[in-house]
Every structure is written in C-alpha cells, then in structure tokens.
Amino acid sequence: MSILVNEKTKVLVQGITGKEGSKVALQMQNYGTKVLAGVTPGKGGQEIHGIPVYNSVAEALENHPGINTSFVAVPSFACLGALEEAIKAVHPASGSKISLINVLTEHIPIQDTAKAIALARNTSEESGVRKLTLPPSEVEEKIRIVGPSSIGIISPGLGKVGSIGGDDPRGVFRKGNVGVISKSGGMASEVSWILTQAGMGQSTVIGIGGDILEGSSFADLLEEFAKDDLTKAVVIFGEIGGTYEEDAAEFIKKSKFKKKVVAFISGLFAETLPSGTKLGHAGAIVYGEKGSYRSKIESLEDAGVKIAKTPDEIPNLLR
Amino acid sequence: MLLFEFEGLELFDKCGINTPRRQLVSSPNEQIEIKGPLVLKAQVLSGKRLAAGGVIKIQSDPPTRVKEYLTQLLTETINHEKVEKVLVEEEVEYEDEYYLSFSYSTEVRGPVMTFSSSGGTGIEDKRVKSYPVDILSTSEVKKLRLHLRGVIPKELIDTALKLWEVFIKYDCELAEINPLVVDKKGKILALDSKVILDDDGDFRREEKFSQRNSFGRPATNAEIEARKIDEGDHRGTAGSVYWDLPGDIAVLAAGGGGSVVNLDALIALGGKPANYTEHSGNPPREKLKKLTKILLSKPNLKGLWIVGGTANFTDIYETLMGFVEGLREVDPKPAYPIVIRRGGPRDKEAFEALKEIGEKEGFDFHIYGRETPMTSTAKIMVDLAYGKEKLSS
Description:
Chain A contains 9 helices and 14 strands. Chain A is an alpha/beta fold and 319 residues long. In chain A, helix 6 runs parallel beside helix 7. Chain A is globular and about 55 Å long. Chain B is an alpha+beta fold and 393 residues long. The longest helix of chain B has 17 residues. Chain B starts with a helix and ends with a helix. Classes of the chains: A alpha/beta (319), B alpha+beta (393).
C-alpha cells in the first residue's frame, strides 16, 4: 500500500479557477489521480480541464459522493472559510465526508490555522482550558489536514495530491519502500531524488509544511507509516523551531516504532544569529533552548534515530 | 513582528488592561508630566534589559536628576541596540508578581495560557504551567471565564480575559505580561509587555507599526531594498527574508528549507556567507534580477553560490535568466567564481544558456545539475573562492 494517497484517492480542488489551483489540477490528472470536481464561490457551472466547477464544497460533494480528498489553493485570507467548508461537508444520502485535506496556501494567519486544526479534531465537547496532559497524537483525528504551506503528498506510481513533483514527478520519484516526511517542499523532492539515484524508491512522500502550526506532524505520519506494509523505513527532514522533531522522537520511543528512521535536521547556523531571527519558514524560529538544533538531535538520537550530516548520507544510513 | 514595550502597553490599554501612568520620551529635554517616584525604562527589543542597565529607578519625590538619567539611557547601546526611546513610568508598589501569557504551542497545536505565581525577571528558570485553550469555544468570553476558575487566582481572571482579547483581536503569536502585579489597593496592573504579532495577520489589523530589525542593529540598505522586492507582488517570494552577514561568499539560495541546509553546509566547510536570503514559489524573472543586484552590491566578495534542491515548480530557466539580467548590471563586473547548482523544471535549457553566456560574456560560471549532490557544491565553492589563501591561513 502507501499512506494517505493511493489509486482510490478522489480529489476536489478548492480554488480551481485560480492560477495554482488550475495548474495543480492538471498535474494531478496527468499523474493519473482522479480529480472529480473543483470549487470557486461564484464561478460554478464552468469547467477547468474538463473538471466541473461548483460554488460550494457541499454542492460538489452532493454531485460527486466519491470525493474523499480536498486540495486547497485559495488565497490566505479566505482559507479558514474554505477549510471549514471542507471539514463540515457531508454527502446527504451516503454520509460520506472528506477525510484528507491538503493545504498549499502559504501565509495563513496562525489563528486561522489553529481554528481549522481544532475544527478537524472535532474536540468541541472537551472544550475549554484543561491541563496539558493529552499528547496530540492521542487525540483522535477525525479529518487529517496536511499543511498549510504543504508541497503535497505523492505515492509514486499510485497518485499525487498537491504540487509535489510539479509537472514531471516521474523524473524524481520512484515506487519503493521508504517513506519521506519533510517540513520543506524543496527538500522533500531533493531527498527523494537522492533516494531514487541510490536505487531506493519511496512509498509515500509528504511535505507537512514549515509553519509554526501544522495539521499533521512527523509523529502523526510516523503512526500512519507504522501501519503501512509497503514502508520499511522512514526519512525525516526537520529543521530548528517548534517541537515536532522532539515529539517524533517521543513517539518512536513510546510506540516502539520498529522501522528504521533516518533524520536530517537543518538550521545549525541559525543558532549563531540573535534569538528570534526569522529564516526561510515561519516555523523555523528559535527562542532560547526550546526547538534548538541540539535539542532535536539529542532527542532523536536518544530514540535510536540515525542522523545524517548531509542529505547525501541518507541512503547509506538506510542500508 | 516583536513590539516594543510601549507599543504592547498601548494594545493592553485598548483592551482595558490596567497599565501604569507613563510618558514616552525620545529626548532628555522633554518636560516630564509624571509624578515621582519614577522608573525610566529603555525601549529595546532584546530581553534582559534590567541586567544590561536599561532600567533606572528614581526614588525621590519630586524626582531629581531626571534629565541626567534620560541622557544616560538615550546614549546607551543595549545588547547591540541603540536606545531611541525611554518610557518614563510612575513606580508601582506591589507585593505579588505573576507571569501570564497566551501563545501557540506546537505540542498541542493550538493556543496555550502560561501562568506562574512568581513572575518577574528570570522567568525562564522558574516553574510555569501551560494550559491548552480551546480556540473554538472561547469565542464566548463567558465560557473562558468558567474554565479559568481554579486555574489562576480569582482576581486575575478579568485581566486574563482581556489579555486573551489582545491575543485574538490583534493576531498575536505571543501576548505576555511579566510582571502582572497587584498593588497595595488591590488593583491589577501590567508592568511590562511582550507582544509578538503574526505578520500573516497584518492584512486585517488596523494598527500599523514601523519596520524594525530583530537583528539587534538597524537594517542595512541591502536588507531594506531586498524586502521591497515582494511588496505588492505575490508571485513567489524573493528577498522577503534577507540578512547581511559578515562573510565574503554571496549566497543566492532557493527554498525556505534548502537555503538553510546549504548555509549549514557552507559554514561547516569554513565558508563565510555574506548574507542569508531565499527565493521560492516560482518568483518571476524581475524579482531575481533585483535580488541579484542587491546581493552583489556588497564589496570584496570572493564568490557567488547559487544553490537549490530539485525544485517542484520553480521555473529554473526563468529564475536563472533573471539572475543573469541582474549580473550584467553589477558594476564592477564580477570576476569571482560563480558556482551554480540547481535542478527542476527547464533546468537543462537554463544550463545551456548559461554556458553560452558565461563563455561569450566572460563570467566564471561553474554549473552543476541535479546529478551533483546539492551540499557537495559547498566544497567546490569554498575551494574556488578561497583557493590557496585558505590553505595557508
């Protein structure tokens, strides 16, 4: 198999009449992924690359009950609304819902991302202020969001959702049994290319995005890879800032994750810069010791993860 | 964007949080309207201001030597940052000091309230507790009030609700009061503020704040110019993040992730980067032209490294031709080695064009495609830039 994306993936494109939306819709079709419908409010009735456009997600789902995935490429100010629509839409007769949402949009206000994550978790019944006892991976994710600022998800040979691999994913990705999870879109491709050159194909490659808050973390996706027969090993591309790398280490230890994990962490040089200096990704920001390079390397090594010093060392560490 | 204390206090005022009587001065000659005893606080972005001598208390009433102390603070440099403004504040006597903040946590992937019953300086080393806040149900303040019972002292609940309002209303990444104090009459006051605004919320926030440099020094010309490139043009990014560094190898790196990987590799090999910047998301040719000109305006460069991973959708031909257009306008004409490693859409076309341009126009291009590992070109760059000079030093 693979995780998240396979031959049963049926995609809705939110923002299909926009530049990115229409471009990525065509890329997905060319890679053999079924794109059933698109949405742009006020532009229903058109067709883009032969794909019917609707005014709302509910309308699209009503006409295409098979939709199980949404790709979101709407402007950042409209993104929370688009996500809320995708999360809440239910097909009236069958009760089917969208279970995977991939968000390409960058620069979404963090408050809006937090609201979308909370909506997708559907935790409104356990509302309010509670003590910090529940690790996020134990909260049942009813709907998985991958992103914001995500390059997408590809299961080579089976399908892709999002912009990953551009027009020609075949030139970079090969089917195989290494899973790749990356905060960086460019590095998701670069790492996959290094693996492909070394004769190692990929089961699924996911760009989780480099924002402070992300719908899916390394730990969430390791949990998926743990259940996937095709995946024999996982590569993590992380960087300074936040705690997703430390959480992944914690998950590997606690769940006794059996597959080999190799990690590459970037951002060592940033530690020579003043605290709070912003780099390429919104989440790559360090205040004090928390989220530092050292903290990530130490916790991952402690969990038995092999650390690559340069990306080209990854294949050897997997062998 | 990190706000100055006085800017954060203004946001607190707008949401009804009590703050001390105060006056912002930028010259020692200004008439002080606040009655003593006074606290003079240098307005700087870095922390640890007290330890660095940025706070002066004047106990006497009426206050004496105010002008002298103001002159002292206004000529000071704290943690490399020149003091431009001083907040003159009435001193508040208090017994209890607390720490209270709202921020986003990657551990719970949502907002958290952090509280400590012993606030003040050195909070990093004290016991604090964080509590996740449900961002959906707390749109009703009544509900949040209910949840805060038993979590923080009763008398602080109103202030916490107002701070939450600041946090949400102004799209903050952090809204922090430290210390939050109770004065002798039982009045709750915020004696300091630390507010970090989410830049991605700028479009819907009415309050505008002047640009600043978190680097602890005024922005350089190159930094100011580079950040203008993306203004009003949302097609990809180029130069939005740009830092001048003290080295001599200019780096035109692609990708928010890859750019950092490559700088790490360059430094590990002894290369000294002249800057950090990145471009991504398929920026148009003009943006690369502008960025190249700014980057190469720096004197005494020993090399230029154009580097990126295997792009998903950035048009390599367009971006590299934008670079060439910028390069042609750099004066004096760069004679130093230029190492290029890129991969992605239209890369072969780009390399053929570059080869021809290099030969015809006399640029020292060293071109590598996706078959050459990205970070291995760091060594090529360092060797070419420093040559024998590096070996002998």
